[in-house]
Amino acid sequence: MGIHLGDTVVEFWLLYLATGVFAGFLAGLLGVGGGLVIVPVLAFIFAAQHFPAGQVMHIALGTSLASIMFTSVSSLRAHHAHGAVNWMVVRGLTPGIIVGTLAGTVVAAQLSTFFLKVFFVVFLYYVATQMALNIKPKPSRDLPGSAGMFGVGGVIGAVSSLVGIGGGTLSVPFMTWCNVKLHQAIGTSAALGFPIAAAGTVGYIANGWMLETLPAYSLGFVYLPALAGLVVASVLTAPFGARLAHRLPVARLKKFFALLLIVLGTRMLFSLF
Predict the structure, then answer these.
(1) Least confidently predicted of 32-46, 87-101, 102-116
(2) Residue 157 scores a pLDDT above 90
(3) What does the buried/exposed string (b/e) look like for 31-69 if buried means 16 or more CB atoms within 10 Å of the residue's CB?
(4) CA 96 to CA 264: how far, in whole Å?
């Protein structure tokens, strides 16, 4: 028996749509996964809706990954059309990604919202620092063999499932380090976002399936009203962001985005105390 929120679902729909608009626009403009914004904002919204405190972060993570499953398809198609997807790398990393992501959702289901929030905040600070200082690894080696690719894929999948993202902040630096050209690393990362999101969605649905304390309209740890709002809005706004990317000073915008991540992370950190 779920928790019925009645008209509250309708009242919060505009917030879901606004989050999707912002996340989709940023994803198109800066080439970053919307999950970095979606997760903390959803955590705040779900807390305001009085979702079970011990499951707020799990639902935010599951819903974020489910939305990325839809939005990554349009990104993947665009990069593939430009020949920017290295399918050999996708095939090499995907098995490890699926295993790592599924394992990550099992672990996440056992962790407290407190721990997941701390882990997410640390990850946000890491990404913000990387973006603000424009830190890029120097190409210094070739891609590893099949066992190495499986292991790297496992790490990317596990971390991505714990922070609800499509993995680009991890896979792009790895591929750049391994002498994959940057535009191809970004395109390949977009393709890898789908198996991460799909495996993560399955994992979060399965691990939350039997819980009776979840809100009504939930599919495991995926909250369907929020998912619908996020997908509709982000799919519409991502192309606008992509077009503006060629006209706006992206380097300066990345520093602004890094500041936004620090603010979101700090706000989440304060919510723990």
Answers:
(1) 32-46
(2) yes
(3) bbbbbbbbbbbbbbbbeebebeeebbbbbbbbbbbbbbb
(4) 30
Look up residue 119 and give its two tokens.
């882990």
Q: Which of 6, 80, 18, 39 is nearest to 197 (CA)?
A: 39
Q: Which two tokens stand for residue 37?
A: 């914004």
Helix axes 56-81, 113-132, angle to 10 degrees: 40
User: How much is the pTM?
Assistant: 0.89
For the CA atoms of 258, 259, 261, 265, the dihedral, rounded to the nearest 10 degrees, stands at 140
180/168 Cα distance (integer angstroms): 14
DSSP string covering 1-47: -PBP-TTHHHHHHHHHHHHHHHHHHHHHHH---THHHHHHHHHHHHH
Most confident residue range from 12-16, 118-122, 177-181: 118-122
Structure tokens at 262: 């620090």
Rounded-to-integer distance, Cα 114 and Cα 94, Å: 30
218 DSSP β-pair partners: 223
Q: Please answer whether residues 217 and 225 qualify as being in contact, where contact means their C-beta atoms are separated by less than 8 angstroms.
A: yes
